[in-house]
Structure formats: structure tokens, C-alpha cells
Design brief:
By secondary structure, the chain is mainly alpha-helical. The chain has two domains: about 70 residues, no CATH class; about 80 residues, no CATH class. About 80% of the residues lie in helices and about 0% in strands.
Length: about 150
Amino acid sequence: MIALGLVLLFWIVLRKTPFGRHLYAVGGNAEAARRAGIGVVRMKITVFMLASTLAALAGIMMTSRSTAVATQISSTLLLNAIAAAVIGGVSLFGGRGSVWAVVLGALVIGSLDNGLDLLNQDQSIKNIVQGAVLLLAVTADAVVRRTGLRGR
């Protein structure tokens, strides 16, 4: 329920507030956003602060759920985070994406991971499959971006 509440909150912030519009503008073209009067450096610092606060909250929630703390970070954590965002439609080039799409991307990655666990696959096979799905998503994003630029 906490995660659903946070997703809803950030969806409202990104879609309905000037902060969200400024954030998309900075992600799309930082120089154009700066020339439009948006404080790009302040926006980036704010986003990094929000991200680190949410990461700390996620760590606290994970620790309270498992009642233990892992001493090592999963080696695939970064791959899973990037894959969830890209599969969800967030452009690696900036300026596109939505909160709900990232949730969908996280569900896809979680389903892949769970399915491969049920098939009793090694971590190396999981990495290969997730990497292939990520490669397909990045390729699709690049193709869509190129065809969109040609149409202008």
C-alpha cells in the first residue's frame, strides 16, 4: 500500500504540477530548459535528493520486512532498475516516460525473474535473458526516436 501510495503521489506530481513539467523539460533538453528560465541545477539536485530519499525508504521497508540486513548488494540490482525503467518506456535519452509505465516495467522484470527461478535457471541465464529483453527495449526506443525525428 505504501508503494502504491508513492506511485500515485509521484504520478500526480509529474503530471499535474509545474515541478513535473519542468522535470520533463530538463530531461528532454537541459539547455532549452535553462533558456526557458528553469533552474536546471536546482532541478537535478532536487531529483537526486528525492531519489536518495526513496532509496532510503525502500531500504528501511526491505529491512523491516525481512527483519535482517544483507551485507552485500545484489549484483543485478542496477540491471533490474534500468531494465524496469527502459521496458516501461522511459527513454534513455530523456524527456519521456511515466510512473505507471515504470511500474509495469518492474512487473515485467519481476515476472521474468520469478519465471526463471521457477524453471530453476542459473543466475547467468537470468542475466542473459534480462539483458536480451533490455537490449530489445533499448533498440525499440532508439528506432522509435529515430523515426520520430525523421517525421519532423
